[in-house]
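Feature request, filed as a ticket because there's no other form

It would be nice if the structure record came with a short human-readable summary line next to the tokens. Right now we just get the raw output. Example of a typical job, pasted below so the devs can see what we mean:
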Amino acid sequence: MSLANHKRQASVSLNPQAIMVTIGVIVIALAGANVVVALIRQLAEQPAAGLDVFDLNAEQSISSWFSSALLLTASGLAAAIAVKTTTMTWRWAGLAAMLLLASIDETIAVHERLSEPVGNLLNISDSFPFAWVLPFIVIGAALFPTYLGLLRSLERQYQILFVLSAVIYLGGAVGLEIIGGFLLNIFGSGVATELEVIVEESAEMLGMGLFISSLFQLFSVPDLQSEPALQKEPALQKEETLR
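Raw output as currently delivered:
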């Protein structure tokens, strides 16, 4: 096989759809492993040691490291796009930095340590155990106008993919996290909270998987400046029109 044919086959096999399918299969496998672990803990008198490695809700588990790897991959792709294009470079770089911090946080769970001080500050510790989401909602709201501009600069298909990715990911990371807090308060640890964790963590991984495949597709555009995939900022377009 010639080198040219080998490169062509490699480029065909590495495409956004293949990336998404691969991540989806891994997520299904991790969710299935978590179900098995939950059943073992319920049925066995003395569950075997080391089951936490397959627990979606445990730190230093396979799913935790996989989620961290997904965030790191997305960070790398965003950084690569920032280098490849001169349009809104600092916004892409900022996105890459935030994803990198999220990747680190996924393995050491700094955000969860914020729940107690934030809860105590707002006097909601007893009723809302996941108070860490509140400062992140505020930060997200502050950054929204900036990154809305980045989103609007993209071609429509990427706008749809990015929004869908965010809805799935944040729906799990924030929305279901809040629901999980209420379920834990009402029912305690049990089937309901276990199912919530599976759906929550799966949504986070699938949302980030879709974001990665979308970023890869965008990065694959030969020339981001001249292609419609990434348009220039409206102000720059108006300036060039006047010239």
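Something like this underneath would help us a lot:
The chain has one domain: 13-237.
The two ends are 52 Å apart (CA to CA).
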